[in-house]
Design goal:
The protein has one domain: Cytochrome p450, CATH 1.10.630. The strands form three sheets. Strands 1-7-6 form a three-stranded antiparallel sheet. A two-stranded antiparallel sheet has the order 2-5. A two-stranded antiparallel sheet has the order 3-4. Helix 2 runs antiparallel to helix 3. A hairpin with a 6-residue loop joins strand 3 and strand 4. With about 375 residues, the chain is mainly alpha-helical.
Length: about 375
């Protein structure tokens, strides 16, 4: 879907969007929680023997397991076994995105041109692995009547509904196996690293701002007390300060620094003589917008209060573009926020984070990553609360 345009994009988007509704994401909550519980146990075991810890790999394994479980129905346990095959391919996807920045920009921003030039990011064996995984999952579930309320189930149900309704036109047909595999892969590729780096930058800023960090566990404990000390979907939604600090992290460290959009019709820009012609591609500098001092005062300061409801109302709605905006916004934003929230809630409830001698101050970004990431990973001092 990321690389489609026009009617093809519209068709796939319309098919996939319902699987990321708030109700459908809620169904995936329990599966994500099971992974999060294992995540805390693994984290605790590591911290007992190694308080100064590099976090990028561990957080990446957490999001890999969540997405592997929720998207593919695979009981991943890369938290215990970093060499689990699903995790291996996850690393390969991340590694293969470390292209020359100009080449990466060309492939992601001009996919049609890249296809004509024979350029690609994903290796053939990675493609074959994910298509094979989707095929085997679908065949097994249909044969054994297995239902898990995950992304794969929802894709299967979409096609089942379409077949029963006899919908076979170009705009209402069912998804092919390759299209289903492609969306499941997009779920994985777009979710595991963006969510893990958001958690990394959140913990980095909280380690430098202990007063803000202290408010996290306070809210978590207050809300859990009202829910019999059980983290439910409803309890998670009540933790508004956690939501604010995640949004401030995404404001200061947007995973994708710029968005590309193509005009589908001529657009006269208000209050100017400029007309964006149909077919023109427009680069929207989200990182620059997020750091504009006319929009966010002292933009280099980490301040979750920027996302208090009254503060948000005072700003232009397009001043926060971490997930894009409009019809082409991130289709999986609810899921991405959910797995990030769960991970941070679990970590802040049980651990305290502080800078250590290996912590980069100021932050240094990796110039060869497609997603905004700390260069060389991130080391923090971690203590059990």
């Amino acid at each position: 879907m990321f690389n489609l345009e026009g009617e093809k994009w519209k068709f796939v988007r319309a098919k996939v969007s319902p699987t990321f509704s708030s109700g459908k994401v809620k169904y995936m909550f329990s599966a994500a929680m099971q992974v999060a519980d294992r995540f805390v146990d693994t984290f605790d075991d590591i911290v007992r023997t190694e308080s100064q810890r590099e976090l990028r790999d561990l957080l990446g394994r957490y999001t890999t397991d969540v997405i592997g479980t929720c998207a593919f129905g695979i009981e991943c346990d890369s938290l215990k076994d970093p060499n689990f095959i699903f995790c291996q391919y996850g690393r390969k996807v991340a590694k293969e995105s470390n292209l020359n920045p100009i080449l990466y920009f060309l492939i992601t921003m001009f996919p049609n041109l890249a296809r004509r030039l024979g350029l690609q990011i994903i290796a053939k064996d990675v493609t074959e692995f994910f298509i094979g995984t989707v095929r085997k999952t679908i065949e097994y579930r249909k044969k054994n009547n297995v239902q898990r309320n995950d992304f794969m189930d929802l894709l299967i149900q979409i096609n089942k509904d379409g077949n029963e309704a006899g919908q076979h036109s170009a705009t209402t047909r069912t998804l092919t196996l390759e299209e289903m595999a492609a969306q499941a892969f997009l779920f994985f590729a777009a979710g595991f690293e963006t969510s893990s780096t958001t958690m990394i930058f959140s913990l980095y800023e909280l380690s430098l701002n202990q007063g803000i960090q202290d408010r996290g566990p306070q809210e978590i404990n207050d809300v859990l007390t009202k829910h019999n000390n059980k983290l439910t979907y409803e309890a998670m939604k009540e933790m508004t300060y956690i939501e604010m600090l995640i949004n401030e992290t995404l404001r200061k460290y947007p995973p994708i620094g710029a968005l590309m959009r193509k005009a589908v019709r001529d657009y006269p820009v208000p209050n100017s003589n400029l007309v964006i012609k149909k077919g023109d591609e427009v680069l929207i500098p989200s990182y620059t917008i997020h750091h504009d001092s006319e929009i966010y005062s002292d933009p280099d300061i980490f301040d979750p209060e920027r996302f208090a409801p009254e503060a948000v109302k005072k700003r232009h709605p397009m001043s926060f573009l971490a997930f894009g905006e409009g019809p082409m916004n991130c289709v999986g934003l609810r899921f991405g926020k959910m797995q990030t929230r769960i991970g941070l809630i679990k970590l802040l409830k049980h651990f305290q984070f502080s800078p250590c001698p290996k912590t980069p101050i100021p932050m240094v970004f990796d110039p060869y990553k497609g997603v905004l990431s700390p260069k060389g990973g991130l080391f923090l001092d971690v203590k059990r609360i």
